[in-house]
Amino acid sequence: MVKNAIPTHIEKLTKERKFADAIKAINAALMKSPRNVQLRFLKARLQIELRDPVSAKNTWIEITQQFPELPEPYNNLAALSANQGKWIEARDYLELALKLRPDYVTAQGNLAEVYLRLSEMNYQSASKLQPNQREYGLRAKAIKEILNPVAKPINKPSSVTPKP
Question: pTM to 2 decimals?
Answer without folding.
Answer: 0.82
